[in-house]
Structures are given as C-alpha cells and as structure tokens.
Amino acid sequence: MKIGFLGAGNMAEAIITGMIKAGYNRESILTYDTDQHKSENMKMKYGITIKSTSAELLKESDVIILAVKPQVLLKILQDISGNISKDKIVISIAAGIEIKKIKKQLATDKIIRVMPNTPALIEKGISALSIDDSSVLTNKEKELIESIFAAVGEYLWLEENQFNAVTAISGSGPAYVYRFIEAFIDSGVLIGLPRELAYKLVLETIIGSVYMVKENNEAPKSLEAKVTSPGGTTIYGLTAMEKSNFSNAIKDGVKAAYQRAEELGNKY
User: Fold this and answer.
1) For the segment 70-117, what is each residue's pLDDT rounded down to a tens digit?
2) What's the angle, vertex CA 228, arms to CA 226 and CA 234, rounded to 5?
3) Would you state the pLDDT for residue 153?
4) SS3 86
5) In the chain, count of helices (H) and strands (E)?
6) CB distance 30 to 49 below 8 Å
7) Same domain as 185, residue 156
8) Residue 263: domain span
9) Closest among 86, 66, 63 to 76, alpha carbons compared
10) Are 97 and 74 in contact (CB under 8 A)?
11) Whole-angstrom Cα distance, residue 68 to residue 42?
C-alpha cells in the first residue's frame, strides 16, 4: 500500500524517518507540500517520491496522512474532498479538529485522528489514536496504521473525548519537561557547579529516575520515599519546593493547557 503525506513539516518527517527505519519501502511513501523546497528536501534526504499536485498524491495513495496545521486543515479538506474516494484511509494529525468535522468534508468513513508528540522525532514518541467506528477498518488496515505509529514510539487507542486531555499531557508535556530541566540546570549553576557538569548531572538523574519508574513498575511516591530520609537534604528540598507551590504549579499548567485545547477545538 502507498502512504501519502499531505504536508512535509517536522512531524511528517519524523513519521517518515521512523517508517524507513522500520523497513518501509521508500517507493511506497509519497509526499506533497505547497512549499516545493520542503518536498525536494524530503526526497533528497529519504529517497521518497514527491508529487507535483495534491490531486496526484491523493489519487495514488491508499493511506493519506494530513500533516498540516489545524488552522488550514478545513480549507484544505474543502479543496481536496472531490479527490478522496470512500476506500481511502485518512489520518489527521492536526490538533483540535474532530473526526466528525473531517467526515463532513470527505466521502470516506475510514478517518483516524492521531495526537503524536515531538519525541517522535527520535522514535521515542507516544501517539494517541482514535476512530469513531473501528468496524470500517479491516484487521490488515488497522495493523498498518498501528505499524506507522509504532515506528516513532508507542501508541494507544483512545476515545476521542480524551484528546484534549492527551494534548495537555503528552502533546504539550515535552515543553514542561524542558522548562523543568532548564530550571534544574540553572539551580546547579546557582549553587556553584559549572554549567556543563550541572547539565550532565541533571540529564542523567532525570533519565535514571524515569527508568526507575518505568522498569520497576513502582509508584513515584514510593520511589520518592526511598530517597527521602528523615531530616535529610531531600525532605528539606521537597518542602521548600512545595512552599513555592511546585505540585500545584504543574497541575495549574496542565489544566490551563487542557482548557486552551477545549477552546481551540470549539474554534475550528
């Protein structure tokens, strides 16, 4: 089956990279972007096929991945609706656009909504997948869709009504982690460590701690208790952080991101 990417941005490139590493035939991957330079760059880097028009891409592709910004998706759907037959599988990675809104524009019922995240760029992503009626897909088609997103990390099938919460956690989440890492490194510099050393200590500490949670299958609170000795440095540090509303700040941030995702979903 041929898989066509309408849009050649960062997320499209991440998925294509993962697919090629997973063994997909380069000739079965097609792309089209209004920015010809992006398409040419993809062809040069990955040896995939570029198409000169969206109509050509849609005609030749069995699976169409809509890798465009949400603010332009509905307009693009109006333009391409006549070129998508009912047997095509359409995957949208545009945030905020519900399946029912895509269905209004297209003849096919095989519409999947996906929320990937940026660690997909290094094949460490987590993608949420949703379809309103899974019976429209054959087992082979479902396996194909899953293999695409398995190539860039892990995936989960979820109800679409969970997507705004997913956006607030895994979609926006990498930025929260980067902000925490930066503050953690700056804290090391503040207490006298060279920045390079603080950087190394912080990253390895975070990586190791994440693996402890993931590999041991143990609650973070339980692992925290193992580090926190009575009257020791750790409990003093945690107490000071909570005085500055560390936990509540995270909860407030995730809630604000969720509310914004709800607003954007209603907007488009």
Assistant:
1) 889 988 998 888 889 999 999 999 988 999 999 999 989 999 999 999
2) 140
3) 96
4) coil
5) 12, 8
6) yes
7) no
8) 171-267
9) 66
10) yes
11) 16
pLDDT at residue 161 in the model = 94
Query: Do 157 and 249 share a domain, yes or no?
Result: no
| Residues 57, 186 within the same domain | no
Tokens representing 145 are: 């869709």
* Amino acid identity at 250: I
Q: Same domain for 131 and 179? A: no
243, 236 Cβ separation under 8 angstroms: no
Q: What's the predicted TM-score (pTM) here?
A: 0.89
pLDDT tens across 107-121, in order?
899 999 999 999 998
Residue 166 lies in a domain: no
Point out the domain boundary residue: 134, 161, 188: 161
Q: Please name every residue paired with 130 in a beta bridge, in sequence order, or none if there are none.
A: 113
Q: Which amino acid is at 30?
A: L
Q: ∠ CA(12), CA(16), CA(18), 5° rounding?
A: 120
> Residue 49 — left, alpha, or beta (φ > 0 → left; ψ -120 to 50 → alpha)?
beta
Whether 132 and 35 share a structural domain? yes
Tokens standing for residue 139 = 């087992």
CATH of the domain at 28: 3.40.50.720
142-96-158 Cα angle (round to 5):
35
Q: Sign of torsion, CA 89 95 99 100?
A: negative
Per the domain annotation, does 234 fall within a domain? yes
Q: How far is CA 20 from the centre of its chain?
A: 18
- Report residue 74: phi and psi, to 5°: -60, -35
Structural domain includes residue 50:
yes
How many domains are contained in the chain?
2
Tokens representing residue 171 in the block: 């979609």
